[in-house]
Specification:
Distance between the termini: 27 Å
Number of strands: 15
Order of helices and strands: EHEEEEEEEEEEHHEEEHE
Number of helices: 4
Shape: globular
Length: 233
């Protein structure tokens, strides 16, 4: 790994350009619970910069990256990848170990979604959380009834309903928020080539905070990772 000596304005420019030109895939979340802001050929419909915040909107997804002074870029040459990292002190989120209601999603990227209910699935992780957002009354009732249940119990009880309703998945770190509205594939189905999420309890159970190829010192946390698009042969 190699730290990139980029001041914040340079980092903002890099993020905005990578999104606007679709130069690769942005990923938020730990192994087993990720959101991928990815496209094959098309580009995001809109990329905006507001100070140190970069927001991208596209069909099926939205992404927001907040790039304060504590955010640093690190390059992993072998992979290759660029990770946005923060010091662990101040770079972690509140930890939920069971399904928890977070109330209306006041931080939703689109204003129209800020009245929908947000539920933390309770990964028990400080570096990121995986949530679902819904305005569906029946699904909200079912989630309220399962409050406090661990992820395995939630998936056993509500997995079919989550697939059927396909609520918005919201994956957050201290510096990034990805919202995926693309449909959840059926059991055994393949994820779409575009924006999607993966929620895989067996991989989560391994406890990794980053992919093996993006190992960080213990005093840093991964906020988001960028994987450049590979040239087609």
């Amino acid at each position: 790994m190699r730290p990139l000596d980029w001041p914040t304005p340079r980092l903002v420019d890099f993020v905005a350009e990578s999104l606007g030109a679709h130069r690769g895939t942005w990923v938020v979340g730990p192994p087993g619970a990720i959101a991928e802001f990815a496209f094959r050929d098309q580009k995001p419909d809109q990329v905006t910069v507001d100070g140190r915040t970069v927001t991208a909107l596209a069909r099926g997804c939205a992404l927001r990256l907040s790039l304060g002074d504590r955010v640093k870029a690190v390059e992993f040459g072998r992979w290759p990848a660029i990770a946005l990292v923060m010091p662990r002190a101040g770079g972690e989120l509140p930890v939920a170990t069971g399904l928890a209601s977070l109330g209306p999603d006041k931080d939703a990227i689109l204003a129209a979604e800020r009245g929908a209910a947000l539920f933390d699935l309770g990964l028990g992780r400080a570096e990121a959380r995986f949530c679902i957002r819904t305005g569906d009354a029946a699904l909200r009732t079912a989630l309220d009834a399962a409050m406090g249940a661990d992820l395995g119990a939630v998936m056993t009880a509500l997995g079919h309903a989550l697939f059927e309703k396909s609520p918005t998945r919201v994956v957050e770190s201290a510096l990034a928020r990805a919202e995926i509205t693309a449909p959840i594939p059926p059991p055994g189905g393949r994820s779409p080539e575009g924006p999607h999420t993966h929620l895989l309890p067996p991989i989560l159970a391994k406890g990794r905070k980053t992919p093996p190829q993006l190992d960080l010192p213990d005093d840093y946390v991964l906020g988001a990772a960028f994987y450049p698009k590979r040239e087609r042969s």
